[in-house]
Amino acid sequence: xxxxxxxxxxxxxxxxxxxxxxxxxxxxxxxxxxxxxxxxxxxxxxxxxxxxxxxxxxxxxxxxxxxxxxxxxxxxxxxxxxxxxxxxxxxxxxxxxxxxxxxxxxxxxxxxxxxxxxxxxxxxxxxxxxxxxxxxxxxxxxxxxxxxxxxxxxxxxxxxxxxxxxxxxxxxxxxxxxxxxxxxxxxxxxxxxxxxxxxxxxxxxxxxxxxxxxxxxxxxxxxxxxxxxxxxxxxxxxxxxxxxxxxxxxxxxxxxxxxxxxxxxxxxxxxxxxxxxxxxxxxxxxxxxxxxxxxxxxxxxxxxxxxxxxxxxxxxxxxxxxxxxxxxxxxxxxxxxxxxxxxxxxxxxxxxxxxxxxxxxxxxxxxxxxxxxxxxxxxxxxxxxxxxxxxxxxxxxxxxxxxxxxxxxxxxxxxxxxxxxxxxxxxxxxxxxxxxxxxxxxxxxxxxxxxxxxxxxxxxxxxxxxxxxxxxxxxxxxxxxxxxxxxxxxxxxxxxxxxxxxxxxxxxxxxxxxxxxxxxxxxxxxxxxxxxxxxxxxxxxxxxxxxxxxxxxxxxxxxxxxxxxxxxxxxxxxxxxxxxxxxxx
Length: 585
Fold this sequence. Notes:
mainly beta, 10-stranded mixed sheet, 6-stranded mixed sheet, 6 helices, elongated
């Protein structure tokens, strides 16, 4: 990341003081997880940003310098324009660090579902993470976990064995020892159907494939423990010894049997399959630009027009990464006690939120033009984001789009790609129809008639190449439905929206002199055939444009200036009366 990008992030993101979480994430660069220091520093949006450490203090504490991104992430949360890969890479590397596998102790997160048998205690199978996923914070009351149709479920399984103590009853002494213990099988179940299996392991990794809709996946594990039970029976000699003496001979025999127990433990996770499908319509403008309209079925990240992503339309969603705080600490249970330990394994997930920046074209200026957004208004989730998360979330009602219309000269239909909000999931482009040509239109406005007080303006709307009139029907409310019957465009003139008749004409009476511009705003090319471009024309009107107007101006001028002229004349006459007269010889 360049220094300029770091500066921009620092300007856009402002940290705030929030309550300290129960645990702090590891210091970047101290874990062998395949991420460099800068990448690892971006993961921890749940950390306490108020605990900022200066560079000097950091060098003194750790004897090394940190990267610019590490320094920035120490004081705020970093966000992304697309789902990053870092969360899944960290989770994959941290998963085996879960400290399970000893028979005398069970390790589990506090939220685990524990199962106890006779000799199997504190057994659990707990979902560690599902990847790739994105947790979408859309409203104060709605948070949805979207998962890719193909992905991986990671879990942890552990238990401890309660070996009974030795007992003696009469001449029978029973001893127990651990013969064997193992996880026999781990399964992933959906609607009662096993969709993946693996051999017994404390760190299962299971693939899944989903179709659509909301799914509940169940992680199951069979745990089997066998004890060796040894019973020693002691019998005294048949002869009765003299009083005060012990038997001179004892008989004993030992019987050994095997005792086994099997328990099944499980955990569930509910996700919504992110199966992105789009419908794309395209058109061609007279200058060669393309019109593109895309509609989708689930939240999306935007439209990429070029292979390298230099030209694109970015949606309302931005992303941050944060650990699952339920795994900050673990419980280690033995026969003697339970202790809380800091977890060395922290799953990290991608989160999406509506950004203040909203939909925008990149690059700005000479990039694609965002023509229209179809969407649904929603309440901001700003008050419902998790603690210690400081991002540029929108603070008022916003619009989640299900359709975008753009005009662009970049890319080709082959390079067009719709990006999803779940990493690695992009749209399958389904063209709704053939490439539709957009024709040029011509609008002309002129003064049809006028008086001293008003003018009647005439608007004529025609196709530029053929001269055919363009008739417009009354406009309808198209805020939520792009498919509108009829030609729903309009001509805007003097703040009014006009509909042309079958001859392509409309009139409007104005009373204020000035310059009047008529602009044709065509209806969507999605449903209009032929489709037209916008056009504009200008005319002027003033009462002086008529003979009557000039006469009226003259009359008005005389009315205003005659009293002043008379006053000047009278003044001059009075002046001559009081002039001194000369003497004659």
